[in-house]
Specification:
This protein is mostly beta strands. It folds into four domains: about 5-150, Jelly Rolls (Sandwich), CATH 2.60.120; about 155-230, no CATH class; about 240-370, no CATH class; about 370-400, no CATH class. Helix content is about 5%, strand content about 35%. The chain contains four helices and 26 strands. It has helices at about 5-15, 40, 185-190, 370-375, and strands at about 45-50, 55, 60, 70-75, 80-85, 90-95, 105, 115-120, 130-135, 145-150, 165-170, 180-185, 210-215, 220-225, 230, 245-250, 260-265, 275-280, 295-300, 315-320, 325, 330, 345, 365-370, 380-385, 395. The strands form eight sheets. It has a five-stranded mixed sheet with strand order 1-4-9-6-7, with no helix packed on it. Strands 2, 3, 5, 8 and 10 form a five-stranded antiparallel sheet that branches. The chain starts with 6 loop residues before the first helix and ends in a 5-residue tail after the last strand.
Length: about 400
């Protein structure tokens, strides 16, 4: 090599040959607390460019006042890279840092006869793809250097080829419901890259459903909440809602996408399992739980009454549209709605379902203790709704209201 080091640099090189060269122990963690635009940051660092894999920087000068020169590059966990820093007139020292300014690789001399620097590294996992190649001269003398970055990008598993071309897969070996979204055609390759013998085999106790699925948004496979899925409508590949979810929305009437809403109540007594949502009557069907349809399917909706509680006394239910607890008028049936205190659940004679003759799933109505449907009538009289459907009284047989 044809080097022309300064006197101090030559002394460092000779000292290195004699085995007396001190180790480099620079630490950069304090940089994480500094504003990159501040004087305190620029006094130590000077970012002089960016590199991609396969690129070499131009000749870069190192001198004070900035103590370090840095190049930014983007890298993903698991990518193998090589960084070479070469100088004809200085002794280079190089580091690779993640976006938290933590050192993940460093080198002073390639060997005892070569004061250039080389770092071979497999990038560790980090939320950010931003990394830094940091360089200085060993003795803080002026020098000119080049940086070469070699590496191979991982295949992009997160870019959608077409609408909804995504899969929702586990992000590791049984990571307690930790999921990611990748391209559907790369899902098997992604799982194989995890390095687990059986990445999808987990004890059930370690599996937690986080109620999200994959959707193609702005060209990227993204995890979205089920209630944010754009379902149906006119598109090349419309999204479908999962089991127990219904695609709803006025936009569907004009071929626009709707939203997936969870179904609840009904004969299966489905519960809302998305935090902050409550079961309300589905206004798009012909079944009204307040009018005797205790087995009606409802929809889970966000509570709209800020500061109000959805916990109601026995026999009452929360009405998020009225922002209050309203009394149950329907009871029994598969849903087994209770009545408020002082009222009893009785058969509704206006329907065609009789619990006394095989209709155990018949919904009833809540009647007051003074109602003749509860206490009955004396012999020779009958219980009739003379004063409205909620106010039944005893009338002599044959009498008219």
């Amino acid at each position: 090599m044809n080097r022309r080091p300064t006197a101090l640099g030559l002394f460092a090189t000779l000292a290195a040959c004699a085995g007396e060269k001190a180790d480099v122990t620079d630490d950069f963690t304090e940089m994480a607390s500094l504003d990159p635009k501040s004087d305190a940051f620029s006094a130590r660092w000077k970012i002089v460019g960016s590199l991609d894999y396969g690129q070499q920087s131009g000749a870069t000068k190192y001198s004070h006042p900035a103590r370090y020169r840095a190049f930014k590059f983007a890298g993903t966990s698991g990518e193998k890279i090589t960084v070479d820093v070469n100088s004809q007139n200085g002794d280079t020292v190089a580091w690779i840092l993640d976006d938290d300014f933590k050192t993940i690789g460093a080198n002073d001399d390639i060997n005892r006869h070569d004061t250039d620097s080389r770092i071979d590294l497999t990038l560790p996992a980090h939320p950010s793809a931003t990394h830094y190649i940091v360089v200085r001269e060993y003795s803080l003398q002026a020098m000119t250097f080049t940086v070469t970055l070699k590496g191979k990008k991982k295949p992009d598993l997160y870019t959608c080829k077409a609408d909804a071309d995504c899969a929702r897969v586990e992000k590791g070996c049984c990571p307690l419901g930790n999921y990611t979204a990748v391209r559907q055609d790369q899902a098997d390759a992604w799982r194989a890259s995890l390095g687990c013998a059986d990445p999808m085999v987990c004890p059930k106790i370690l599996t937690r459903e986080d109620h999200s699925m994959a959707e193609c948004l702005a060209g990227k496979c993204t995890l979205v909440a089920l209630t944010d899925i754009a379902c149906g409508g006119h598109s090349a590949n419309p999204h479908h809602c999962p089991a127990d979810f219904l695609c709803e929305g006025k936009q569907l009437q004009v071929d626009g996408p709707g939203k997936c809403s969870q179904q609840c109540a009904g004969k299966q007594s489905l519960q809302c399992n998305i935090p902050g949502q409550f079961c309300v009557d589905n206004p798009n069907d012909d079944c009204n739980p307040a009018g005797g349809g205790a087995d009606c399917i409802g929809s889970c909706r966000d509570a709209i009454c800020s500061g109000k509680t959805a916990k109601c006394a026995l026999g009452f239910r929360w009405n998020q549209f009225e922002c209050s607890c309203v009394e149950n008028t329907s009871c029994g049936g598969f849903a087994n709605f209770p009545c408020a205190a002082g009222k009893a659940c009785v058969d509704n004679p206006s329907d065609n379902c009789d619990p006394q003759h095989g209709g155990a799933d018949c919904p009833g109505v809540c009647a007051a203790a003074t109602d003749c449907r509860v206490k009955g009538c004396a012999q020779g009289s009958k219980c009739s709704p003379c004063w409205g459907p909620s106010n039944w009284v005893c009338l002599p047989n044959g009498a008219l209201c």
